[in-house]
Amino acid sequence: MNAVWTLFRSNLRTKKLQNGLTTLLILLSALMLSTSVIVISNTQNLFTDMHNQTNGSHQMLTLERGLHDPKQLKQWWDEQQGVMASELMPYRNLSGIIHQGKEINVYLHMMDTPELPFRVDKLVWAQGEERGTPEAGTAWIPTSLSYSNGINVGDKVSFKTGQGTFELKVAAVVVDIPFGAPFSNTARIWMNAQDYKKQFQSLQGKDMYMMGLRFADYDTNTQYWKLFEKKFGTPYLESKREFESIGSFYLIMNKMIGFVIIFLGAVMLLVALFTIGFTISDAILANYRTIGILKSCGLSSAGIIATYISQYALLSIVGIIPGLASSHFLSKMIVESSLSSLKTSRSNLAMQGNFMAIAVGISVFLLVILCVLIYANKTCSIQPVQAIRYGMSEMDNSKRTRRLRSNKTHLIGFDRFPVMLVIGFRNVLKNVRGSLLMLVLTTITSAVLVFGFVLFYSIISVPKTAPLWG
Questions:
Q1: Distance CA 156, CA 171 (A)
Q2: What per-residue confidence (pLDDT) applies to 284?
Q3: What is the pLDDT at residue 406?
Q4: 453: burial class by Cβ within 10 Å (0-12, 13-18, 19+)?
Q5: What is the pLDDT of residue 202?
């Protein structure tokens, strides 16, 4: 046991830089893999929790072409069991909003706000004072429009109509689930009823209507639409947004980010495992004679393998624990950036998935130990007599002797180059496979680190406009 302990300390003391780099690779792989798991698990939970909290709609009906009677439609849905219909909300469409002299290209639904509280798609206040309806001369805007363009409570914004412009003061910023996803180019502006009539009564065109439907069982929605067609003698002919479309921008982007980080973490873990395997193989070759002497003195192959296992077990623990701790903060930053439109000043996004991150850390640790066992098991084939006599196996010694005899002319011309360059070439040519492996690993590691930095910077830029993302 003393011999194993002495070898263990010797390996840590004599290879500080190599051990440090190996630990860093394990840390990065654990950080990326655990971060991706937490991001993926939290994305679905946070959106679902907010959708349930607001009694969010599963389908959003927009009556724009006058193909159905809005009041008749509303009455029929109110009579259905297992379905909750929102208020019938009149609105007009505008294009563009002006803030501090800058025009923002957004498609706007200017809403004639009914009295709160809403039955479906309840608004959640992010900023401002909660009221039953907006006061005259004010409006409520969604978080997706506010956060991405720096529009805050108290700011004045202008809207263009066919007859000029009118100005409203932002009284509140609200979370609006159906039209508040990241990168959304559509927003609902909640207006005071008097302001709505004043600005749009004289304009051409008629009011359009919007209504949300929330089903007790979303999978039964097709049955209701069959009853609708049977009742009115025609299928629903206006626009309809499904739940999948509403949730897609909240969910797809974070899942894509999560899977990309998983890929980067897996690549980094493979680099770490290859590095560990190469290091152990190189150490066995470099200490072949020493291992033979230790075996001849009575140290078993299991004892020699134990030195490598203990060494890399310690390096793995040192790398994995900070990686898991850092992943909590990194994943929270990613989720808050990508789902910033769900965040309010009154509540923070509660993160989950720490147990899954711990499971990832344990898996990384076990993979490292398995890799060490596979490569360190080569010491079992070392014969003490051959190791002491040749410093390698007898077969390898024979191959080396034949190669030296047949390649005497390979160094012709090297005397023209500087000594240090010749030594460098000799070390590279002496171990071509190892040199190529290190070149490939260095290239892959550089690519992963650069791509990871660009991805992380892009995620931080999510609350900004889409062209700045990436």
A1: 9
A2: 73
A3: 54
A4: exposed
A5: 77
Among 223-232, 302-311, 340-349, 435-444, which stretch is predicted with the lowest mean pLDDT? 340-349
Helix axes 419-430, 432-460, angle to 10 degrees: 90
**pLDDT tier at 201, thresholds 50, 70, 90:** confident
**What are 93-109's pLDDT values in tens digits?**
988 888 888 888 888 99
Q: Is residue 228 part of a domain?
A: yes
Q: Answer yes or no: do 47 and 110 share one domain.
A: no
CA nearest 333: which of 348, 320, 319?
348
Q: How far is CA 106 from CA 29, 154, 183, 281, 444, in A?
A: 40, 20, 10, 61, 41
Residue 264 belongs to a domain: yes
- In the structure encoding, which two tokens stand for residue 238, read together? 């206006």
Tens of pLDDT, residues 155-180 = 999 988 877 888 999 999 998 888 88
H helix or E strand, kind and range, residue 210: strand 208-215
Q: How many domains does the chain have?
A: 2
Residues 6+ apart with CB under 8 A from 99: 149, 150, 151, 155, 157, 158
What sign does the CA torsion over 143, 145, 148, 149 have? negative
- Domain limit, last residue, from 183, 203, 237: 237
Amino acid 368: pLDDT: 92
Q: How far is the C-alpha of 337 from the C-alpha of 343, rounded, in Å?
A: 9
| CA dist list (Å): 382 to 17, 206, 390 | 28, 89, 12
Domain hosting 180: range is: 65-237
**Residue 429 CA neighbour count, 13 Å, CB half:** 11
Do residues 465 and 102 touch, judged by C-beta distance below 8 A?
A: no
**Whether residue 221 sits in one domain with residue 79:** yes
Q: Do 261 and 208 reside in the same domain of the chain?
A: no
Q: Is 109 helix (H, G, I), strand (E, B) or coil?
A: strand
Residue where a domain stops, chosen among 202, 237, 272 = 237
- pLDDT for 409 equals 47
| Helix, strand or coil, per DSSP, at residue 289 | helix
Q: Are 464 and 338 a contacting pair, CB within 8 Å?
A: no
Examine the domain organization and report whether 225 and 157 are in the same domain. Answer: yes
- Whether 297 and 360 map to the same domain: the answer is yes
Nearest to 337 by CA among 329, 357, 467: 329
Specify the range with the lowest mean pLDDT, choosing from 256-260, 267-271, 303-307, 458-462.
458-462
Q: Examine the pLDDT at 271 and tell me if it is beyond 50.
A: yes
Residue 57 lies in a domain: no
Residue 323, phi then psi, degrees to nearest 5: -65, -45
DSSP-assigned letters across all residues of 348-416: PPPP--HHHHHHHHHHHHHHHHHHHHHHHGGGGG--HHHHHHHSS-HHHHHHHHHHHHHTGGGGTTGGG
